[in-house]
Amino acid sequence: MARSLRPCALAVASVCACLTSAAALAETFSSLPPPPSLASSGEQQRYMLELVVNQRESGAIVPVERRDGHFLLRAGDLQRAGIPAEKLPDPQQVDVSQWREVKADYDDRRQRLLLTVPPDWLSGQVIGEAQNGPRYPGRTSTGALFNYDFYATRTTNAGTRLSAWNELRLFGAAGQFSSNGVWQQQMEGRAPAQDDGYIRYDTWWSNEDENNVISWRVGDLTTDALSWSNSVRLGGIQIGRDFSVRPDLVTYPLPAFSGQAAVPSTVDLFINGYRSSQANVQPGPWSLTNVPFVNGAGDAVITTTDAVGRQVTTTLPFYVSSTLLKAGLSDYSFSAGAFRDSYGIKNFDYGEAAASGSLRYGATDWLTLETHAEGSDTLAMGGAGAMFRVGSLGVLNGALAQSQMNGAAGTQYSWGYQYNNSWFSIGTQHTLRSREFGNLALLSSRTGNSDTSNTTYSLARRSAQYNASVSLSQYGSLGAAYIDISGGDGQHTRLLNLSWSKTLWGNSSLYVSASRDQQQGAWSGAISLVIPFGEHGSASVSMERDQQGENNQRLYLSRSMPSDGGFAWDASWANQGGNSGDYRQGSLRWRNNKIDTSAGFYGDDDYNTQWADLTGSLVLMDSEVFAANAINDAFVVVKTSYPDVNVRYENQSMGRTDRNGYLLVPSISSYYPAKYDIDTLDLPADITTPKVEQRFAVKRQSGYLLHFPVEKLRAASVILHDADGQPLPVSSQVLRDGQATEYVGWDGIAWMENLHASNPMRVATPDGRTCSAELTIANGQPQALKTYGPITCPLPPRPAGAPVPSPDNSTSGITP
């Protein structure tokens, strides 16, 4: 009986298991929405679905309520998906199935709710970062610089004359001080001239505030000017905006492009046929700002490609002018002082007080406003102007100025136009002045004239300039210029110039030019052929015809100076026509890292001159004196405290440090973030340095002491044993005052740095025991890569029952 009932019991159990599984599956499927075809109109359920907006998968899982075949979402979830609150029809819950601007699709296979909204609803994206590059503040050290230039000439019937130009410069954190001038002396020949002796040119002190992009100068200066004003020399003070101290700033407006993406896409930007950037964009508006630095007219082609390969291409013309200012950016300069009269003739001759100021402001990216004012006791002048970008057709400029000089009023009008692209450029500038118009330049020429004659200076009444150039591709390039000037003294000058140039075989080139003076009604022209020989040599042959109808022939040979120094020379011969005789000229130059010297001659059979020149500089920094070529801007002194170390500037070798470990790197562009590094491959194995490369900028007219600490390696391996002669446990900590924690490795070996003659230490084992020891080095000079020891560090006995630590389960948790 029992046997017959067992199969039945098994069958009943199977049926129960099947029923239980079916119930579990039913409960599971009840939490998932049914396919749309099976959904009844009356049910109301809540599901968890992935929300996808315009095919952008964010991975967000949100609750979705299904009611009568419609899908309802919370407004907060839609906002977090990027849909703005003002576009939502309900602030609490939104029925996306009845949203007129939105398309809602249910993906039952992947359990997603797909929404398609207008692209302009989504948040905007900026592709690329701001155009400003990384900033490297200018550095300076305390030091002094002396530039010199000795020049000697001997001329037929004029004798021998010596001159020595010099500049003394002091610099540091307080700024830069400079004074320059020239000493001249007639050695033989005619009687000493009145200008023999020392003539001072300029003396000034200046400094910069890089954070506010401002510089100031006290002493001799030249006023800043706009395109429709003039500069004068003053002795006084000057303050103004100085963008040269911040090369990371781009002051002129660059084009920006924008668009919309309905789905995730890729945007490619082509500038004048070259792809400049590529970026991935999400659905919504986007703007492209990482445009390369371009100037002039061009075409931008924007190609948008979506995930399935569909492309939309848009071509947009643009025009960039570096003379404009970005919207909201200002540029200004103010100068006040006294006229520098008899400049280059008298040392301290200052005249009437004067002041000058200019201001430029970027009102928009296409409009820059300008204003200028200047005055003195007898003059007041002021005006305003603007520069206007006409779409992609170029830039117009115009200005109007009024003056009051010695009681007479005058007016000046100025206007012009500039346009250029990759193959064509054109420009014109006009100035029209009334007879009574005056400015500081005119006033300075009158008051500073040391001539006792009745010479009267006046500004040009009218001037017009026209220029154009065009690239003819393989046929060369063509240029033209025309100048028309009506002087205040009634003279009229009209000049026309035409030129054509073409590159021939190799790097040889042909140049043809012709000029015509409209007043004399005569043409002059020249043809020149330049042929290079090797890397440094070149030769040119030219033929000219002047306005008097004389024909001249010229032959010129030269060898340029190699970048690392050496010899250079040049020689020329010219048949001047007429009775002038042949002209001959030649020079020889030699330069190394410390001096630059040259000598030569020039002249004809009746009049010739021989000359010699020696230039260079002396630098005082870090109590050391260095000799170098003339330094016009900034420099760097590299200090390694170790001799014969190769120093590189922008990956170019600049030489090796001297026996004291110094090397002067001259002719550095100020505020340029350059890379300096040293080559450690030639250093011995016991020499180390924590830095091998540094990038920084140097302040204007200054120098910087760059330190690469090269020193002997004061490190070695030390074997530590306990009192029984056994290695100390792995991961034991070696503690020394003022030093980083070091660790014991296998066989009791520890690597220890910054060793001295006496090195007391305390060792802590992973099980908490400690001991003390001391490493004594003879003469205090550890031998690099040597192993010292074993040194005994007696550990106290291990407590009874304490576990024995092993390298695999060390309590320190540190593997050496």
From TrEMBL:
One of its GO terms (cellular component) is cell outer membrane. Residues 720-777 form the PapC-like C-terminal domain. Residues 794-806 have a biased composition (Pro residues). Residues 794-816 are annotated as: Disordered. InterPro entries: Fimb_usher (IPR000015), FimD_plug_dom (IPR042186), PapC-like_C (IPR025949), PapC-like_C_sf (IPR043142). Pfam families: PapC_C, Usher. It comes from the Bacteria. The keyword Transcription regulation does not apply. GO terms for molecular function: fimbrial usher porin activity. GO terms for biological process: pilus assembly. The keyword Signal applies. Keywords: Signal. This is Fimbrial assembly protein. It comes from Pantoea latae. The lineage of its organism: Bacteria, Pseudomonadati, Pseudomonadota, Gammaproteobacteria, Enterobacterales.
